[in-house]
Amino acid sequence: MARIRRNSLQEDEIINVWKIGKYIRLSRDDGNNESIVNQRKILDEQIPKYFDNDYYIVDEYIDDGRTGTSDDTRPSFLRLVEDVKCGRINCIVTKNLSRAFRNSANQGKFLEEFIPLYNTRFISLYEPHIDTFLNPEVVHSLEVSITGFMNEQYAYKTSIDVRRTFDTKRKKGEFIGAFAPYGLMKKPDNKNMLIIDEEAAEIVRDIFHWFVDEGMSKSGIAKRLNELGVPNPTAYKHSKGFKYCNPNIYKNDGLWSERTVLNILLNQMYIGNMVQGKQKVISYKVHDRISLNEKDWYVVQNTHEAIIDKETFEKAQKLHKRDTRICPNKRKVYIFSGLLKCADCKKAMTRKSAKNIVYYSCSTYSRKLKTACTKHTIREDVIEKAVLTAIQKQIALVDNLNEIIDEINNAQVIHKKSKHKLLNEKQKELDKLNSLIDNLYIDWRTNEITKTEYKRIKSKFETKIDKIKNIIANLEKEELSTNENINEPYLQTFLKHKNIERLERGILVELVNNIYVHKNGGLTIEFNFQDQ
Predict the structure, then answer these.
(1) Is the confidence at residue 413, as pLDDT, over 90?
(2) How many CB atoms lie within 10 A of CB 164?
């Protein structure tokens, strides 16, 4: 009958049956001679040689594509540890020490402290051969310590080589990520090159159009996408069969957020630039990531086809940097948000309303110190009329009017293909749910399910149906508004009379950089272009 000591100070405890856990690990850096299948075959062949009939295999713990330099990045190893603690297994068998550890400190702590503490047997089949039941002192041997050190040095050298290779690829503008950014995809015959994923790219174009041309806020864009039933980037990758994962994957509900929209608006990858190396792993032992300063990023221009033109991208960056305000319960920012400034202190103007009249005043005067600046009060309708008149006169002086007309026409194109596809998918999903409810009724009437089950499942389906109907309504409304958008009255007026008759956020941002308000009510308009 087998015996094993917990430690030298306790009485021997009898182990009647060895409950074995097989540990297998494969790193991305392991050569062709290592595989999950080979390791499993070796364990299955060797285990019977160490036992009579007093054992059984409880479980198999596999960490595929995981480094052995740390424990907390190996989910199966952590599960094995918990199973040891709760007594589910009392014997661990692995091919060799390098499969279990690439960190000499972790190796020593595990073999010299954890194993005896939990009265567990550890077997390493290959050199240095270890069996803590037959020879418990072997874990303190020089051979085991040297092997642990050599395994760690191998991991260190491999890490350096891999980083050097990755840095070389980054400098050349080759993509090395596991997953391409939303809107892009890896080229089928060259995983280091990116091409456009048209289905997602249409959503990216819509986001930039809504933000730059329609004056929508980032949160407003997120709400609009959610109402249209557009899956967020993570959900989209999963729908395409990718095993995409990130630290917050289990919190992801498939909905868009303001932060997700912002990340897209700031991403240079959409203008054809390869941007990599925004983060780095602290060390080959500590796998936590830290963000790097932008000057340390790897940026290579024009490595792939652009989704967004550079001019639109730059407008989005300028808009993001402006101090903007969102209308209460609305999705668009105020028409003059981020554009109005005090002519004296150069600070932003504060928006207020009283008796249905909107007016602006100097934020320094209103919020900080009355003597630091003057009030500079001016009504919004006065600003609007003055700015509109100035823009009309400026446009009349522009020589390349046809180019501006073409640009505005292009800006108004709404990408309908992805929305039409979504509409068809949601309609099919609705038809399927209605069919399921019909079949559910038949199952109840034929006593396949109880009345209680019928009501519960039916209620669940009906909730889904209501949600899908709302999405379909929003998609149909979007298609209708898209068709109307192309014939916007101010665009038709611009085309017919070579001018505009009312201010729109998109046109305002297109033409105006800043509007300075003087204390006497005068305005200085700083245009984005100069034409003598």
Answers:
(1) no
(2) 9
pLDDT at 381 exceeding the cut of 50:
yes
Residue type present at position 505:
R
What's the pLDDT score for residue 167?
A: 87
Mean pLDDT of 223-252: 78
Q: What are the structure tokens assigned to 237, written together?
A: 């990758």
Q: Strands 274-276, 298-300: parallel, antiparallel or unpaired by DSSP?
A: antiparallel
- The residues that bridge with 281 in the sheet, in sequence order, are 289
Choose between 430 and 46: higher pLDDT. Answer: 46
Q: How far is CA 406 from CA 206, 388, 411, 412, 491, in A?
A: 18, 21, 9, 10, 11
CA-CA distance, 511 to 509, in Å (whole number)?
Answer: 6
- What angle (nearest 5°) sits at the alpha carbon of residue 526, between those of residues 525 and 532? 100
User: What SS3 state is found at 309?
Assistant: coil
List pLDDT tens digits, range 346-359.
888 888 888 888 88
CB atoms within 10 A of CB 285: 17
Mean pLDDT calculated for residue range 48-53: 87
In this structure, the strands spanning 55-64 and 121-124 are unpaired
Residue 345 corresponds to which tokens in the numbers above?
Answer: 């202190």
82, 59 Cβ separation under 8 angstroms: no
Measure CA of the first residue to CA of the last residue in the chain; give whole Å: 101
- Extract the runs of DSSP E, i.e. beta strands, from 197-325: 274-276, 279-281, 289-291, 298-300
Nearest Cα to Cα of residue 98 among 21, 165, 18, 29: 29
What 8-state DSSP symbol labels residue 347?
A: P
How far apart (Å, rounded) are the C-alpha atoms in residues 518 and 514? 13
Instruction: Single out the residue of 213, 248, 259, 206 nearest to residue 228, CA to CA.
Output: 206
The torsion angle over the Cα atoms of residues 44, 2, 113 and 75, rounded to 10 degrees, is: 30
Each residue of 127-154: pLDDT tens digit? 899 999 999 999 999 999 999 899 888 8
Q: Is 418 left (phi over 0), alpha (psi -120 to 50) or beta?
A: alpha
Paired tokens of 23: 């540990």
366/525 Cα distance (integer angstroms):
23
Which DSSP category does 447 fall into? T
The Cα–Cα gap between 280 and 290 comes to: 6
124 closest CA partner among 31, 133, 116: 133
CA distances from 520 to 217, 370, 381 (A): 32, 17, 16
Alpha carbons 56 and 35: distance in angstroms, whole number: 24
Q: Work out the pLDDT band at 483, boundaries 50, 70, 90.
A: very low
Most confident of 78-82, 152-156, 506-510: 78-82
Looking at 398-504, list the stretches that DSSP marks H as alpha helix, in order from N- to C-terminal side.
401-411, 417-445, 451-485, 489-497
- In the chain, the amino acid numbered 132 is T
Residue 498 neighbours by CB under 8 Å, 6+ apart: 395, 396, 401
DSSP state letters, 263-278: HHHT-GGGGT-EEE-S
Closest CA to 215 of 351, 352, 334: 334
Residue 1 CB neighbour total at 10 angstroms: 6
